[in-house]
Design goal:
The protein is an alpha/beta fold and 136 residues long. The chain has a single domain, classed as Ribonuclease H-like superfamily/Ribonuclease H (Nucleotidyltransferase, domain 5). Helices cover 44% and strands 33% of the residues. The protein is built from four helices and five strands, in the order E-E-E-H-E-H-H-E-H. Strand 1 and strand 2 form a beta hairpin. The protein is globular, with a radius of gyration of 14 Å.
């Protein structure tokens, strides 16, 4: 089964008060959601933090889900064009902080040991994660 994970991050002011949200679906069924404030950050910091926290949560959740549902692949969805294309290697990463985020993502990918794909979606298709960001 494919675990689909929608992530979003945002800040009011860029930088400003920032928050993240994530929603996990297994076979179209909601299995996990999370939202939190991350303090003062830029929009890009929030987007990357959401992805990293989602990967960290996968490590925890996958242990529970894998035993019963046989998760075979992870699909991440985000409306951040920059982040998705940088993580996929389509855009160069020049910013030192983003390089650190990418490195952390690569380490988490290796620890999870499942195929992972990243997808850019319109904001409308990321509504649940966006809702969580705005609730914080």
């Amino acid at each position: 089964m494919i675990l689909k994970i929608f992530t979003d991050g945002g800040s009011k002011g860029n930088p400003g008060p920032a928050s993240i949200g994530m929603v996990f679906y297994l076979d179209k069924k909601l299995v996990f959601e999370h939202k939190e404030s991350i303090g003062t950050a830029t929009n890009n910091d929030a987007e990357y933090t959401a992805l990293i926290k989602a990967l960290e949560n996968v490590k925890i959740q996958i242990l529970n889900l894998k035993s019963t549902a046989q998760v075979s692949k992870l699909e991440f969805y985000s409306d951040s064009r920059l982040m998705v294309n940088q993580v996929k290697g389509m855009f160069k990463v020049k910013n030192g902080k983003i390089k650190e985020y990418i490195l952390k993502i690569r380490v988490l990918e290796q620890e999870i040991k499942l195929p992972i794909t990243y997808h850019l979606v319109p904001r409308e298709q990321n509504a649940e994660a966006d809702r969580l960001v705005n609730e914080v």
